[in-house]
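Quick illustration, no need to memorize.
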Amino acid sequence: MNLFTCVKIEGREDPTMTDEDKAWIDNASYETLLRRWRFSPPGDWMLQVDTLDYYAKILAAKRSENPGDAVRASKTIGWDS
């Protein structure tokens, strides 16, 4: 197992981003993305290889669109939800 091996979570073994993954990321709220970013277990397929880069880019874009909502979301979910 190497750094880029995806742990089987939610029935996925292949970390390649699908159209469905991209659509989920695009349509998820900032809070939903942030919650998954903070609390997903190690090896979450959504936070692996090419999906991770896209996820991080969209998360940052949504944070920049409305910084006030981003702060509220961060305070709402905290670090130990």
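Confidence is low (pLDDT under 50) at residues 1-7.
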